[in-house]
Structures are given as structure tokens and as C-alpha cells.
Specification:
By secondary structure, this protein is mainly beta. Helices cover 5% and strands 43% of the residues. The protein contains 2 helices and 35 strands. The strands form 4 sheets. A 14-stranded parallel beta barrel has the order 7-9-13-17-21-25-29-33-30-26-22-18-14-10. Helix 2 links the parallel strand 2 and strand 3. The longest helix is centred in the first third of the chain and has 11 residues. It is elongated, with a radius of gyration of 21 Å.
């Protein structure tokens, strides 16, 4: 365990109590399993979903393409899946009946999805957007909601080495994925930037709001979050707001994680030796962990849980008002603000205050 705390204001209640007893209870922290493979979650492998309509690209008449309904949106994506720089404007609210056509250009300069402050609603019938195959795509001024992923990613799925996605001035909300990344799933060497955006009210087993990971064998998967809010997301297992695993690297600046919930790592959960998270000028507040998994203790790391040789740096930030709830029998409820075990954690010029837990209200390390 490697822990550095420099110039930190800490709420000592609970932290001191955690240091009094040198014999710590055995606490079980679950780890997310390695996904079973990139090809398992492609856009075209579930016959139970409504088929998406793709227009013949030969009929395309040039960018920008206007999308006003599901057919014109899928047709526009089919048109831009070629070399060049293209813009699709969302000129009306759109409700889907299934997955949209994947953005898979592999060589196009850039695809721009300009939402014009309109909404694409998955209606709980499919993943709203997938970007893969080395594509470069930008989403701006768009609301992506009610998506339902088959496994990973309910709102946006970003995957594939060299795939690059930028999300600005947008909202990703009320999406769900059964396995991971309810709002946004970023994996397999891709890079994503989230700016001036909100990711809220999404749900999944792992990473209710966002899941970032690689497979340990390709380039690192990168996510940058700036001037954004990750709010009120729920994971039924680990990482309510954000889960980082398997060579995922994340940078968070001037952003807020609040009111996210999970049994482990209410706001943020990190694991694995290649995973690194840097948090600067940000606030982690009012997140919570609630023991709800019948075979696990739960209730560890109300704000943040750092484990399994991962690394986290917190600088010029505030961790406040987070709660680690114990079970009715008194198990769990450890690390109200931060729970760290078998990992590297460095905190500088930051405030850790008014967090609560049965043990280690501010910080618990083992």
C-alpha cells in the first residue's frame, strides 16, 4: 500500500478511529471480470432486436445531412461511413425502435453529430450510438436518453483501437446496460473526451455512469472529463459514477461527481495495475455505498474506492458529504470519503470533510 497525503484538510472523526486498531477485519472487495472479447458486443449480432434501416450510400448527396427521424438518422450514418469529413444535424427529436447504425468509418477524417439541442431517445429498445473501427466522431449539443445496451454501453459505446470520440455541451441520461457502462462505455484502446456535459441517471452492473477499460493487451484506453457533471448514476455492483479497470486512464478536471450510488465505490472505483485516475479542481460529494449484493459485504468507499494496484491522484479537490452505509447486521460501512486497499493514492492540497462511515469516515486504508 502506498499512500501520500500532503496539505490535506481531513475530517478526523472515523479516520482516527480506523487507526486505533492495528488488526483490521477482512474486507472483500470485488473486482470486475475481464470482458470476454471485443467481438461479443458488436452492433449486428442480436436477431431479437429490430433491424436498423441503412440507405444505399450511393444515393447520398453530400454533407451536411439532416436527420429528423430514425430512418433519416440511420441513412445519414450509412452515408458518412466513408472517407471524408461529414456532419449530421439532428433537426428534430428522434425516438428509436432499435440500435442505430454503428459509426464505423475506419479512415474518415471526422463525423460530426450536431444535436442542435434536440434529443435522440432510445425508448429502451436499443443502444443509441456506437462508434467503432478507428472512427473519429464528435457529438455536440445533443441529449442521448433511454438507451438500452445489449451488454456494454447504453447511451454511447466507444470501442476499437484508435477510435476517438469527443462529447461537448451534451446530456447522456437515463440509459442502461446490463453488464457495464450504462451511460458511456469506453474500451479497447479508444480515446474519449467529455466537455461541458452531464452524465446522469444511468444504470448498469459495473460503472453505472461510465466504464473505462482495455483488455490488457492493446494501447491504454483514455478518458478526459472537463467542466462536467457525473450525477445520480447507479451501479448494482461497483462504480456508481465511474469504473476504471484493465489499463484505463482517466483525467478529471473542474468537474463534479455527486449523488452516485453503488455497493462498492459510490462515485469512482478503480482497479488493476495499469489503471490511473487523476482528479484536479473537482468535487466528489454526496455519493454513497449501500450493501445490496447478497454474497458480498458491500458498503465500502462512499466516495472513492481504489484497489488492486491501481493509482489515483487527487489534487486541489474536495471530497465531502459521502456516506458508506453498513448492513443491518453491521458489516461494511467503511471508508466514507475514500477506501484504499493494495493501491497507490496521493492527495495534495485537498479537503476531505463531513463524510461518514462506521469506520474510516474520511479515509480508510488497509
Amino acid at each position: 500500500v502506498f499512500l501520500i497525503i500532503v496539505c490535506v484538510l481531513v475530517a478526523l472523526t472515523g479516520l482516527v478511529a480506523a487507526q486505533k486498531d492495528p488488526v483490521r477485519p477482512e474486507l472483500t472487495v470485488p473486482l470486475v471480470p475481464k470482458p470476454s472479447g471485443e467481438a461479443t458486443d458488436t452492433h449486428d449480432d442480436d436477431s431479437s432486436r429490430p433491424a436498423t434501416m441503412q440507405l444505399n450510400p450511393a444515393a447520398c448527396d453530400g454533407s451536411p445531412y439532416s436527420a429528423t427521424d430514425e430512418d433519416s438518422l440511420n441513412g445519414a450514418i450509412a452515408c458518412v461511413n466513408a472517407a471524408g469529413t461529414f456532419t449530421i444535424t439532428i433537426d428534430a427529436d428522434i425516438t428509436l425502435t432499435g440500435d442505430t447504425t454503428a459509426i464505423d468509418t475506419d479512415g474518415a477524417d471526422e463525423i460530426i453529430i450536431d444535436g442542435k439541442n434536440n434529443t435522440v431517445d432510445g425508448d429502451s429498445k436499443g443502444l443509441v450510438f456506437a462508434v467503432e473501427g478507428g472512427s473519429i466522431a464528435s457529438f455536440k449539443a445533443i441529449t442521448i436518453t433511454n438507451g438500452l445496451g445489449r451488454s456494454y454501453g447504453g447511451g454511447i459505446l466507444v470501442r476499437g483501437n484508435s477510435t476517438v470520440v469527443t462529447i461537448t455541451d451534451s446530456i447522456i441520461s437515463h440509459n442502461e446496460a446490463p453488464s457495464g457502462g450504462g451511460g458511456l462505455h469506453v474500451d479497447y484502446g479508444s480515446k474519449t473526451v467529455v466537455e461541458n456535459s452531464t452524465i446522469s441517471h444511468n444504470k448498469s452492473k459495473y460503472g453505472g455512469g461510465i466504464w473505462v477499460h482495455s483488455d490488457g493487451g492493446v494501447e491504454f484506453t483514455d478518458l478526459t472529463i472537463t467542466n462536467s457533471t457525473i450525477y445520480s448514476n447507479v451501479a448494482t455492483n461497483i462504480g456508481g459514477g465511474l469504473l476504471v479497470a484493465l489499463d484505463g486512464t482517466v483525467s478529471v478536471d473542474n468537474s463534479t461527481f455527486s449523488e452516485n450510488k453503488a455497493p462498492f465505490g459510490g462515485a469512482i472505483f478503480t482497479q488493476d495495475s495499469g489503471s490511473e485516475v487523476t482528479i484536479t479542481n473537482s468535487t466528489i460529494s454526496a455519493n454513497s455505498v449501500h450493501p445490496s449484493h447478497p454474497s458480498l459485504v458491500g458498503g465500502l468507499g462512499g466516495g472513492v474506492l481504489v484497489t488492486s494496484d491501481s493509482k489515483m491522484m487527487i489534487e486541489n479537490s474536495t471530497v465531502t458529504g459521502n456516506i458508506a452505509h453498513p448492513t443491518d447486521g453491521g458489516d461494511g460501512g467503511v471508508g466514507g470519503g475514500i477506501f484504499e486497499v493494495d493501491a497507490e493514492l496521493a492527495i495534495t492540497n485537498s479537503t476531505i470533510s463531513d463524510n461518514s462511515a462506521k469506520e474510516g469516515a474520511g479515509i480508510y486504508w488497509n
